[in-house]
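A reminder from the course coordinator: this example appears on the midterm review sheet, so study it carefully.

Given structure:
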């Protein structure tokens, strides 16, 4: 009986520790971000004040890490050790991201580039908990909704708009995940090492993955999840089922947050399964030894599939029913980083040094260490995926391998921590264990970690600057310079709600200023680019329809075309005024060119809207046209 009870008790203890850690992380992030908001800070890109305070906060976090490691090593006050690690990790994330952004309401990259459609999605799911596409009305979402749905519920509870909750939610969830990752590491390796590897991987994720906040959550969990997966697959049929469940939960989380990382994680698990099957066959000399591995892979797939269905099922049902769709272009992007193999271990930097140590450690310890095997297979899978992505270019697509560099860095960084710890101990023994060597090793590690940490704001310099130069939903630029046309969005919203008499989420707007949809939950007739568009939306055919509308000559013809549209027609148009009429800037996919998007302008003759069935309102640089009849 005791054999069966022990795993249950360990699982219950881990769950309890996770819950307690999450509560602490939420409190730390909430208190920290609220405290930052109470002061009128100077813009990060015009002053070094917030950078100095960021460094100070990082030093405090490092002191907490040191306290935790020391207490774990002397086996005293374990709850203080845990609390120090939890506060240190969540505090490090909060101060490293929150302090540089303290004077702006926007997150890294503001509302620019990809952050525009992410904010639009968060705004959509803040407005309603229903799974709806970020842009298009009456179709289920294609982009995984997990991160955005949770953020929407946070915004709804706090009474904040989607664009405004983005920053605190992104930072807060990353802080929470850093603590969850530590609890997972702690269940897999000795506690003092868990603190060290959690601190290093958290710093790496903040530096290289945080601009894409929803994928950063998966990156932070990737390394311990792979070790968990290897523990599930290489054991006998009677063991490893707790790890099977954990691996399935991780893949399910990836499926609801970020499809690309789900693909990479599943690909890695399959590679692990093949490797485990070969080892099992070599040991037992029978194919029956492979069966337990196959059963565990099937169980992992089933668990992750059930979780994935919570966000994917509505889209899959419509797709399988034959809803009209076009082939998506989400994979049509090949920057220079996707055309070469990444080798961070040969960069002349602290990051390069850590990755080089990790590479050496994996190579040396692969045959004798479960951790080295798991991380090694993960590294190999990244390179194989990159090569497959390069091969896919011959077929007119890619596998977006350039987005895997953050995963590679974290895997090698984790290995680098183990390599440093084991290497330092080996040197310590080889030179007859001089007492001062330990002190020297700790000093070198601490100085190196702080040098890297304090440089993170510099790594994120561009992303932080954009957060200050973009205009937020209140019409304010945090760097105190004149705002962009976004400052007129409030007037546009007021006019729209007054003239349509309908809630925002019952109104479809055709506009090329798609950032308007990032601030207000109107539906759009056309999205930003085809690369982020739902295949069920038929992006290219909608673009053709818009161009055809511009060629019409009378209001009656336009009304007839709108009434007979195969999609729900726009209730309003938000144009820019041009020399020849009302203009829209549209986009088309031009892959394999880089950039992969071509912008072009279409113009509507003003006479098309000179009719009582349309109301035209000039607002700043915009011409708002609302169909009233």
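Designed residues:
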């Amino acid at each position: 009986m005791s054999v069966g009870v022990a795993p249950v008790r360990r699982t219950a203890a881990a769950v309890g520790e996770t819950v307690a850690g999450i509560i602490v992380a939420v409190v730390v992030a909430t208190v920290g971000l609220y405290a930052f908001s109470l002061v009128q800070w100077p813009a990060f890109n015009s002053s070094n004040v917030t950078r100095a305070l960021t460094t100070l906060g990082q030093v405090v976090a490092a002191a907490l890490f040191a306290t935790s490691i020391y207490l774990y090593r002397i086996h005293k006050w374990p709850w203080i050790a845990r609390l120090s690690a939890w506060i240190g990790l969540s505090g490090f994330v909060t101060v490293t991201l929150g302090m540089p952004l303290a004077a702006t309401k926007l997150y890294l990259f503001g509302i620019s580039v990809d952050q525009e459609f992410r904010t639009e999605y968060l705004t959509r799911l803040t407005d309603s908990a229903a799974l709806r596409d970020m842009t298009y009305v009456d179709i289920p979402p294609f982009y995984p909704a997990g991160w955005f749905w949770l953020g929407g519920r946070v915004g709804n509870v706090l009474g904040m708009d989607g664009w405004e909750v983005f920053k605190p939610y992104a930072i807060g969830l990353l802080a929470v995940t850093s603590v969850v990752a530590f609890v997972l590491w702690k269940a897999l390796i000795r506690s003092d090492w868990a603190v060290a590897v959690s601190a290093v991987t958290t710093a790496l994720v903040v530096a290289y993955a945080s601009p894409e906040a929803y994928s950063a959550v998966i990156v932070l969990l990737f390394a311990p999840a792979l070790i968990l997966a290897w523990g599930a697959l290489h054991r006998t049929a009677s063991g490893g089922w707790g790890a099977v469940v954990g691996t399935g939960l991780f893949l399910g989380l990836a499926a609801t947050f970020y499809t690309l990382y789900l693909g990479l994680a599943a690909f890695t698990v399959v590679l692990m399964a093949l490797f485990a099957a070969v080892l099992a066959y070599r040991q037992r000399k029978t194919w029956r030894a492979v069966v337990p591995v196959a059963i565990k892979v099937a169980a992992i797939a089933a668990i992750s599939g059930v979780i994935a269905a919570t966000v994917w099922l509505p889209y899959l049902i419509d797709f399988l029913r034959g809803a009209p769709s076009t082939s998506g272009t989400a994979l049509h992007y090949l920057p220079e980083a996707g055309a070469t193999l990444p080798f961070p271990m040969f960069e002349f930097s602290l990051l390069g040094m850590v990755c080089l140590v990790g590479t050496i450690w994996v190579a040396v310890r692969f045959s004798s260490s479960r951790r080295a095997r798991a991380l090694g297979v993960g590294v190999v899978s990244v390179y194989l995926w990159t090569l497959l992505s390069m091969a896919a270019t011959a077929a007119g697509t890619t596998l977006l391998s350039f987005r895997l560099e953050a995963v590679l860095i974290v895997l090698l960084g984790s290995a680098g921590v183990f390599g440093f710890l084991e290497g330092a101990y080996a040197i310590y023994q080889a030179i007859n264990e001089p007492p001062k060597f330990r002190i020297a090793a700790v000093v070198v590690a601490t100085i190196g970690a702080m040098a890297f940490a304090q440089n993170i704001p510099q790594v994120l310099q561009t992303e932080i600057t954009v957060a200050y130069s973009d205009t937020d939903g209140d019409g304010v630029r945090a760097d105190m310079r004149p705002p962009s046309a976004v400052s007129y969005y409030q007037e546009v919203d007021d006019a729209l709600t007054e003239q349509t008499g309908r809630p925002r989420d019952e109104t479809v707007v055709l506009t090329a200023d798609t950032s308007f949809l990032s601030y207000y939950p109107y539906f759009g007739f056309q999205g930003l680019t085809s690369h982020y568009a739902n295949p069920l939306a038929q992006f290219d055919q909608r673009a053709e329809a818009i161009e055809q509308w511009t060629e019409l000559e009378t209001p009656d013809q336009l009304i007839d075309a709108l009434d007979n549209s195969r999609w729900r027609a726009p209730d309003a148009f938000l144009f820019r005024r041009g020399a020849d009429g009302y203009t829209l800037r549209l986009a088309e996919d031009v892959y394999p060119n880089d950039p992969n998007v071509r912008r072009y302008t279409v113009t509507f003759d003003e006479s098309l809207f000179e009719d009582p069935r349309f109301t035209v309102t000039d607002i700043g640089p915009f011409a708002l046209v609302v169909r009233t009849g």
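The first helix runs from residue 2 to 37. Strands lie at 508-511, 523-524, 572-578, 581-589, 597-604, 614-619, 622-627.
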